[in-house]
Amino acid sequence: MSNLILGIETSCDDTAIGIVDEHGNVISSVISSQIDIHNQFGGVYPEFAAREHILSIIPTIDETFKKSNIQLSDIKAIGVTRGPGLIGSLLVGINTAIGLGISWNKPVIGINHLRGHIRSADLEMKRVNYPATILLVSGGHTILAYMKSVTEIEILGSTKDDSVGETYDKVARMLDLGYPGGPIVDKLAKDGKATIPFPKPIINEGFDFSFSGLKSAVARYIEKNPDNICKNTIAASFVQSVLDVIITKSRKALLLNPSKSFIIVGGVAASPQIREQAQILCDELNVELCLPPLKWSTDNGAMIALATWDYIKYGIHKEPKVQLRLPLNEF
Ligand code: KG4
Ligand code: ZN
Predict the structure, then answer these.
(1) CA distances from 234 to 70, 191, 298 (A)
(2) Residues 72-88: tens digit of each pLDDT
(3) How far, in Å, from the CA of 67 to the mean position of ligand 2?
(4) Which residues contact residue 58 at a Cβ distance below 8 angstroms, ignoring those fewer than 6 apart?
(5) Fewer CB atoms inside 10 A, N or C side of the chain?
């Protein structure tokens, strides 16, 4: 019986393939990372990302099938990220999915990458109960939203400039720490004291975010103190500012919108500091904290496959066509 979905994710710098059943069990998942290529640039170099996807996509799909002995006849449909993302990278995933769909005679559905992140919280086991408040913090996005159900999303706020992940990456670059910056900055912050009073932009103004002022403040501090730089102190102070902003706004959102679950997804949800502070907040407000296991926080194909099940269940058919900008509340 065909009861599995193949998910293809190539929106940024990971060639990620996953095969998932309708309950979110991950039957197979392979992620081909490009970190070594982009590390030298301190961020993702879009043209190189696309070229690398071309080289790795077929071998990664092959490996995903081989790992769990899955037959083509087990696959019901293919879900592929249609946006948001980098145009060259998206095109590789989409064109591959279309080609496979024709030769395998399987339907191909275009999936919103952000909906994939939302569904990562239910991979391997069901965790989320609705209504839920969701914080999506990734390299490309910072969004706070309220979900009455898996299909009804009200966006409360989003970033006006840099995303949280991008800010981590840029601070890491200023400190010569390599890419991706999040995990390295977090690690340094653990052994530092947050003694530098970096700004906490628009912390008390609504649900939108702004991180470019914080990024500039870190840059100015480094410029002004060239002989006296303690990377641990800078990292700890930076992380403290980010945490205060994120947790303050999340608390406000949870108080305003009665929620059974608080979901945090996206690459930055891998941050141990954010996980710890969010748990304290949820204990205080008596809300269930729903976090994807660490390996499903960053981009992966399994989350795209699980989101594809929603599209099928609710009869939402989106063509596999590139959509560079795609808000969270669209399919
Ligand atoms: O969701 P993701 O894999 O890709 C996008 O859709 O953007 O997120 C990548 C981002 C990067 O900016 C990376 O620095 C950040 O997630 N990140 C972290 C951690 N692990 C990854 N940020 C903070 N702490 C982490 N442990
Ligand atoms: Zn992502």
Answers:
(1) 48, 11, 25
(2) 999 999 999 999 999 99
(3) 24
(4) 96
(5) N
Question: Which residue is listed with tokens 């269930």?
Answer: 288
- Measured between alpha carbons, how far is residue 299 from residues 1, 86, 116 in Å? 29, 14, 9
CA-299 nearest atom, ligand 1: 3
Q: In this predicted model, which residue has the larger pLDDT, 38 or 68?
A: 68
**What is d(CA 179, CA 183) in angstroms, rounded to the nearest whole number?**
9
The Å distance, Cα 242 to ligand 1 centre, comes to 14
Q: Are strands 108-112 and 75-83 parallel, antiparallel or unpaired?
A: parallel
Buried b (16+ CB within 10 A) or exposed e, 302-314: bbbbbbbbbbbee
Instruction: For residue range 156-207, list pLDDT tens digits in order.
Output: 999 999 999 999 999 999 999 988 899 999 999 999 999 999 999 999 999 9
Which residues touch 91 (CB under 8 Å, ≥6 apart)?
50, 322
Residue with CA nearest ligand 1 atom 8: 267
Is the pTM higher than 0.85? yes
Positive/negative CA dihedral, 106, 301, 207, 280: positive
